[in-house]
Structures are given as structure tokens and as C-alpha cells.
Write a structure and sequence with these properties.
alpha/beta; three-stranded parallel beta sheet; two-stranded antiparallel sheet; 5 strands; globular; disordered C terminus
């Protein structure tokens, strides 16, 4: 496994970061940073254009990510929230 790291601090930098990941032909985007969660709608939009799955914490799944994880959802302890196979390659 090869890990490709990108940094961004604004929406325009996010666009460039996702383009770099797509150019590097990554298989999945792991969006673990708070800023990625805050820009999850745009991140999912960009990734979906290339059918690139996104995984992350909390609301990433609701935004269209492949799956999300959290320790607590709606009063119930949980591991993986769900798997959205339609985004799989």
C-alpha cells in the first residue's frame, strides 16, 4: 500500500488536492481531517466525478462517501455506519 498525502486549507486548494490524488491514480480517499469533513460536500462532488470512493468519519457517508465511522450515532455505539456499494469501482 502506498499512501499519498495532500494538504489544503481552502476550497480552491481542495480542488487541486483532489486533482493531484486523481492524477496519482489513488484507489480511495481517506478524509480524516476536520477541514475535509467541513468541506465534505465539495470533496464528494470532486471524487465522484472520477468514481473515486471517499471514506471518513461521521457525516462523510451522509454526504455520499463510501462509508463513514463513528463511535456514537443516535445514542447507539457503532463501528462502521454503512457501506455504499454504488460508489465502489
Amino acid at each position: 500500500m502506498t499512501i499519498v498525502e495532500v494538504e489544503f486549507s481552502s476550497e480552491s486548494e481542495l480542488d487541486s488536492a483532489v486533482a493531484k490524488l486523481i492524477g496519482q491514480r489513488v484507489d480511495v480517499i481517506y478524509a480524516g481531517a476536520t477541514i475535509a469533513a467541513n468541506m465534505r460536500g465539495r470533496l464528494i462532488e470532486l471524487a465522484n466525478r472520477s468514481r473515486l470512493p471517499v471514506v471518513g468519519a461521521g457525516l462523510m457517508f451522509e454526504a455520499g462517501g463510501l462509508f463513514a465511522y463513528t463511535a456514537f450515532i443516535g445514542g447507539v455505539a457503532a463501528g462502521l455506519v454503512a457501506v455504499r456499494l454504488v460508489h465502489a469501482r
